[in-house]
Amino acid sequence: MSNNKMKLEFLAKSENEGFARVTVAAFVSQLDPTIDEIEDVKTAVSEAVTNAIIHGYEGREDGIIQITASINDNEFTVEIMDKGIGISDIEKAREPLYTSRPDLERSGMGFTIMESFMDNMKVESEYKNGTKVTMKKIFSSLKQ
C-alpha cells in the first residue's frame, strides 16, 4: 500500500460536521475498510469536529477547523485542530460524563467515544491557543 495525505479546512459551523465526516471516510476508503471500520472513523471524526465547534469555539462560526489525514501502509492517522479557547485540564475533560457545557445538555462522552472507536488517541491543548486531537486506526483488511 502506498502512503497518502490530505488536508481540509472549513468554518466551525455545525453543518460542516457531516462534510468533514464524509470527506475523511472517502479518503480512508482506499484502505478497503469494512463497513464497521468506516463507521468507527466517521463517528470519531464527528465527535472531534463537534467538540471543536461547541467547546473550542463556543459556537462562534468564524473559527477554522483543520483536518489532516495520512495513510502509511495499513495505519490511518487523522488530526483535528482548532485555534479556539483550548482545554485547561485535559485529564478532567477526558473523564466519561464530564462536560464543560452542561447548559447545552452535552453527554460528556466525546473523548470516550473517540477512544473506543479508534486504536489510539492523543489530545494536546493550550489554553486560549487551541486543541489538537490525533487519532490512529489500523485497518484489519491489511493486518497480517
From TrEMBL:
Keywords from UniProt, A to Z, are: ATP-binding, Kinase, Nucleotide-binding, Serine/threonine-protein kinase, Sporulation, Transferase
Pfam families, per database record = HATPase_c_2
Q: Which reaction does it catalyse?
A: L-seryl-[protein] + ATP = O-phospho-L-seryl-[protein] + ADP + H(+); L-threonyl-[protein] + ATP = O-phospho-L-threonyl-[protein] + ADP + H(+)
Q: Which family does it belong to?
A: Belongs to the anti-sigma-factor family.
Q: Which GO terms describe its molecular function?
A: protein serine/threonine kinase activity
Query: What is its biological role?
Result: Binds to sigma F and blocks its ability to form an RNA polymerase holoenzyme (E-sigma F). Phosphorylates SpoIIAA on a serine residue. This phosphorylation may enable SpoIIAA to act as an anti-anti-sigma factor that counteracts SpoIIAB and thus releases sigma F from inhibition.
Q: Is Kinase there in the keyword field? A: yes
Which InterPro entries does this one have?
Anti-sigma-factor_SerPK (IPR050267), Anti-sigma_F (IPR010194), HATPase_C_sf (IPR036890), HATPase_dom (IPR003594)
ATP-binding as a keyword of this entry, yes or no, is yes
EC number(s): the record gives 2.7.11.1
What is the protein name for this chain?
Anti-sigma F factor
Taxonomy, superkingdom = Bacteria
User: Where is the Histidine kinase/HSP90-like ATPase domain positioned along the sequence?
Assistant: 36-141
